[in-house]
Specification:
Elements lengths: L2 E6 L1 E7 L2 E7 L8 E7 L15 E4 L1 E7 L2 E6 L3 E6 L11 E6 L6 H12 L5 E4 L1
Parallel strand pairs: 1-9, 7-10
Antiparallel strand pairs: 2-3, 3-4, 4-5, 5-6, 7-8, 8-9
């Protein structure tokens, strides 16, 4: 599978436990598909879990998670598209994640703010369109 696509029925964007966190899921109670992106609020020059100043992506379970590995993120009011970097090893054969955002599942401006903070000064290009 090179492309994972699902419709997010719920989502969130917040600062919690000293991290910026954005997540989407196809169900609030028992999601079959979900995505969580997070980044520590205060990075220092030290390594964080083996990675310098980076974000963390989790896709559907902890076995498909890791630091970095996203080339480009495009966010609109209708969808979130993540193009994974060729060097991404933790998402298997998946190269693109396409999340359709159900109406009312998120506060769009909060998602813009928190994704901007997560991807600021990283190798991931973040675009709002």
């Amino acid at each position: 599978m090179e492309r994972l696509a699902f419709t997010a029925r719920c989502g969130f964007a917040k600062e919690e436990e000293e991290a910026f966190i954005v997540g989407f899921a196809d169900s609030e109670k028992e999601p079959g598909n979900y995505i969580i992106v997070q980044r520590v609020v205060e990075q220092d020059a030290e390594e964080v879990n083996g990675e310098l100043n980076s974000y963390f992506l989790e896709l559907n379970d902890r076995s498909m998670s890791g630091y970095g590995g996203i080339r480009h993120v495009l966010l609109s009011r209708e969808r979130l598209v993540l193009a994974l970097a060729p060097a991404n090893q933790y998402c298997g054969e998946i190269k693109e994640i396409d999340v359709v955002l159900a109406e009312g599942c998120i506060d769009f401006e909060e998602v813009v703010t928190y994704l901007g903070r997560i991807f600021d000064d990283t190798d991931c290009h973040f675009t709002v369109g």
